[in-house]
Fold:
Amino acid sequence: MKIKKIRNIILVAVVLFVSAFLAHGIFSITGVFYANKAYMHEPPGADITIVDFNQYGCDLCRSVHPTLIEAMAKDGKVRYIPRIVLSDSDFDRTIVHAVYAAASQGKFIQMHNAVYDNWPVKTLGELMSIAEQLELDTAQLRSDMDGKKVKRKIQQAEDYFAAWKLPGVPAFFIDKKIRYMPNRSDMPTVDVWLEKFERVRKL
Structure:
């Protein structure tokens, strides 16, 4: 009787463990489509979401970014969530920390776009100059850059990138319906982005 009871306890424990493991995996995958408002651009009436896995040191990412931003501005109803992936460059990592730290002052998206607009950013002085142009408190920014909150957000982006098993950047998810990874022979124009937004709305 005791052996049967022990077996039942073990079985329940295994079921609970497997359920928790699967739930975590599902969350790791689907959670990429959701973010705190401080870490996204969300215009009034936004009806689709685009998740952008990108890297500042990536030439292709920098080529694609301007057309995406212009297309979103023209469409007016696209929610934008950047997920910035770390590179091997130590200073690129510093830039990513600064961009996420800007969220504490309500300017994550502005700092993200400004880094692309002002690339290459090679020194801390240049990075802080960008922050000053955005009227960020640079003393607070420097302090926040090494904070636990920033490190947690950066790790979250890395975890999502790994969970989706993406081979590289840039990689885009549009409203859970389209995964798009442009390449040099498939550079999206503004019109191509607009067509993709409309196609998603019809799916």
About this structure: The chain has eight helices and four strands.
